[in-house]
Design brief:
By secondary structure, this protein is mainly α. It has 3 domains: 92 residues, DNA polymerase, domain 1 (Orthogonal Bundle); 124 residues, hpI Integrase, Chain A, CATH 1.10.443; 42 residues, no CATH class. 53% of the residues lie in helices and 3% in strands. Strands 1-2-3 form a 3-stranded antiparallel beta sheet, with no helix packed on it. It is globular. One of its GO terms (biological process) is DNA recombination. InterPro entries: CB, DNA_brk_join_enz, Integrase-like_cat_sf, Integrase_catalytic, Integrase_recombinase_N, Integrase_SAM-like_N, Tyrosine_recombinase_XerCD.
Length: 362
């Protein structure tokens, strides 16, 4: 019997029918000249190799700018000057969301950066005489640590919540294990196909990840065991017709990135872990735990698919175990003083770690 006030958890996801066709809506910006130039710019981006996800993200930013220009009677690209762009940048800075919070510097940067590419294209295609965004100064992006990091115990608690006695629970367990083992993004795991898994060499081929870049990552033995069990026992029960997708929904359709994120968040709630984030938390946890166990930061760069090493180096600041060992070995205000040999043994790797941090800063 449940205790008074206890909330019973149901591991079986509610069945949701595939969404039907969306009703047509009238685009309020379709009649504007700037919108036509925007569409031509996006066609050029797709032709020259930009991913559809990049185009979609920039579309939202440019539409926001076009709506702002329409309110002020700016209809043609030639109407946009450097002073106009400066006014728009100040507008973003002083803008307040419905809850009264300002836009973060990252949001302001994301709204302004596509304008530089757009006006550079407009000038190159001779739609305008000069590029008014060439001297636009973008906000400096702050370097933030991840808001939350899962411990090994918390990750294991999340994984244990998936019930492997049901087909969908076994699918979720294999998906969670693969996320933690490989550090894949939710988009990347949703795009996995059956032929992307090489069980003999314990490899996973990530095709067209972020930035349309392919990479190969190893799979841990435990994750591969759960994946094999899912492919043999659960997946045949979930599909009605054969599909290439590795993970499928209860209706046999390929999973989507929101589906993956919602299921990770669901099992976090079951485990009683109330931390912001979902899929990316497992990615952060994988990188942090491997770094604390001695993995090289350049190895993590290859595993995570980071284009720049400084993106991966954020985990050197999150990994606290080495810093704690240095503090315990060197700080004079400790409870028990170490023996000379022990202190010397701890001091050598501590100094190496400090030297590596100094070289990273240089």
């Amino acid at each position: 019997m449940p205790r008074t006030g206890q909330r019973l958890k149901s591991r079986k996801p509610a069945a949701v029918k595939p969404a039907g066709p969306k009703p047509r809506t009238v685009d309020p910006l379709a009649h504007l000249a700037l919108t036509a130039y925007m569409d031509a710019h996006f066609e050029w981006m797709l032709v020259t190799g930009y991913s559809p996800n990049t185009v979609q993200a920039r579309r939202q930013s440019l539409r926001r700018f076009i709506a702002w220009c329409d309110e002020r009677g700016l209809q043609q690209p030639a109407d946009i000057t450097k002073q106009v762009l400066d006014r728009y940048q100040r507008h973003l800075f002083y803008y307040r969301k419905p809850d009264g919070a300002p836009l973060t510097l990252g949001s302001q940067h994301g709204a302004l950066a596509p304008l530089k590419t757009w006006f550079k294209w407009l000038a190159r295609e001779n739609h305008i005489l000069y590029n008014p965004a060439s001297e636009l100064d973008l906000p400096k992006l702050p370097k933030h640590l991840p808001r939350a990091i899962l411990s090994v115990q918390e990750v294991e608690a999340i994984l244990a919540e998936a019930d492997p006695d049901t087909p969908y629970g076994l699918r979720d367990r294999a998906m969670l294990e693969l996320l933690y083992s490989t550090g894949l993004r939710r988009m990347e795991i949703a795009n996995l196909a059956l032929y992307d898994v090489d069980p003999n060499r314990r490899l996973l081929f990530v095709r067209e990840g972020k930035g349309a870049k392919d990479r190969v990552v190893p799979i841990g033995q435990r994750a591969l065991a759960w994946l094999d069990r899912y492919l043999i026992e659960a997946r045949p029960q979930l599909i009605a017709v054969e599909r290439e997708a590795l993970f499928v929904t209860d209706y046999g359709e390929p999973v989507s990135p929101p589906f993956v994120a919602a299921h990770v968040k669901r099992y976090m709630d079951f485990a009683g872990i109330n931390k912001p984030g979902a899929t990316h938390l497992l990615r952060h946890a994988m990188a942090t735990h491997m770094l604390e166990a001695g993995a090289d930061v350049r190895v993590l760069q290859a595993l995570l698919g980071h284009a720049q090493l400084n993106t991966t180096e954020i985990y050197t600041h999150v990994s606290i175990e080495h810093l704690r060992a240095i503090h315990d070995a060197t700080h004079p205000a400790r409870l028990q003083r170490q023996e000379a040999a022990t202190a010397q043994a701890l001091a050598e790797p501590a100094q190496q770690w400090l030297d590596s941090l100094a070289s990273d800063e240089d």
